[in-house]
Amino acid sequence: MPDTHGQNGTLCAWLRKDGARSPETAHCIFLSIMPHERTVPALLWLFVLLTLCSYLINALTLWGLGRSDNPSWEPRLALLKNLILSDILQSSNSGPAVIYSLLQRRTVRLNSWCLVQYFLGSLTIFSSLVTITLMALERYLYVCHAIHYLVILTPVRMRVALLLIWVYATVVSAANLILLNMGQLHPHEEVTRGLLCEPDTVEQVMGFPRAAAVYRKITGSLTLLLCLLAYAFSYVRMYRDARNAVIPFNAANTTARKTVLFYCGMLFVQLLPVLIKVISDALWEVEGTAAMVELLPPSDKRGGTAPSATAAAMHVSLLVMLVVPPCINPLVFGLRNVEIRHVLLGRIRCLRGANARMIREDMGRAHRAQAG
């Protein structure tokens, strides 16, 4: 397999003599991100499978979560449905866009749809983080304050909490988009350096508006810190209460320990996109422009820019991790719960019973028709 990246080092012209972008710039930058042709089909199939898996698992879980007769289930089911909605939006925003870029062998262009992707990406990330934070606090109230659980989490308060989640995510994302558009677009700069309109690629084309970058990093870091503190507080308190309940019987609370470790591990997987983004931001602040972009060719001061190997690896890793949490969230927060599994199994049994009843009725009508 020839090295397409090496060949395009001479075939791709980053700038014309008049300074205008070449029509093949998007393809050339794509080759700098994905220098080995064999990795493109593998990544393409990976994104297709993850996107379809996300749709299937989330749709199945959402279909099975009917209205329960047990009022203690309503708060957790409401939060789970909200997380599923956010996951579906996240998969729809990132999966098809990356698949299209891989099929076209080109990076995305800065246009109105790119800004919509940028806004929806921020919206789903923030809504998922806040929802997971409230899910941890809900479990804490259910385990440690079971007597007052339904008094605290009333239906009205749950509706207000869900509304505030989306209001917070919308306000933060809209403010970030407004600050981003205050930047100055580089001349002749329409092609981004990424397969998806995520913050680094868009901010680079918009001239690195300082206000937008600082605002995004502060709000993202504070929301991430809030989620981590809520998880630490909730599960440490739940583990202590469970452990104290069995100490008089000289029994080791292995179940509580495994539960805490499991949810902490799944939280790490859920937060991987945000953690990768934080590492990317830190790398940018520490190493500066030279760490994220390199000039091609070095002798031309006006030369176009292509992502460095570090920036390309971080970008691809971020894209992969954006479609992983929507696949595992329904399994972790939904199907792993015994009560929710009973709800799903009950819906499936009802569906099977309805189908069997319809088959019997059809067979009865056919038998009567033959007898007549």
Task: Write down the overall geometry.
Answer: globular
**Roughly what is the average pLDDT, rounded to an integer?**
75
| Percent helix | over 70%
Largest sheet: 2 strands, antiparallel
In quaternary terms, these chains amount to single chain
Portion of residues in beta strands equals under 5%
Terminal CA distance: 73 Å
Strands across the major sheet, in which order?
Answer: 1-2
Radius of gyration: 25 Å
Pick out the low-confidence regions. 1-11, 13-20, 286-304
Secondary structure category? mainly alpha
Number of strands: 2
Secondary-structure element sequence?
A: HHHHHHHHHHHHEEHHH
Number of helices: 15
Short description:
The protein is mainly α and 372 residues long. It has 15 helices and two strands.
List the helices and strands and how they pair.
Layout: H1 4-11, H2 25-33, H3 39-64, H4 74-104, H5 112-144, H6 149-152, H7 155-180, H8 199-205, H9 210-246, H10 254-270, H11 272-287, H12 289-292, E1 293-296, E2 304-307, H13 309-322, H14 325-335, H15 338-371
Antiparallel strand pairs: 1-2
Helix pairs in contact: 3-4, 3-14, 4-5, 4-14, 5-7, 5-9, 7-9, 9-10, 10-14, 11-13
Describe the structure.
The chain has 372 residues and is mainly alpha-helical. A hairpin with a 7-residue loop joins strand 1 and strand 2 (304-307). The chain has a two-stranded antiparallel sheet with strand order 1-2. The chain has helices at residues 4-11, 25-33, 39-64, 74-104, 112-144, 149-152, 155-180, 199-205, 210-246, 254-270, 272-287, 289-292, 309-322, 325-335, 338-371; strands at residues 293-296, 304-307. The model is unreliable at 1-11, 13-20 and 286-304 (pLDDT under 50). Helix 5 runs antiparallel to helix 7, helix 5 (112-144) runs parallel beside helix 9 (210-246) and helix 9 (210-246) runs antiparallel to helix 10 (254-270).
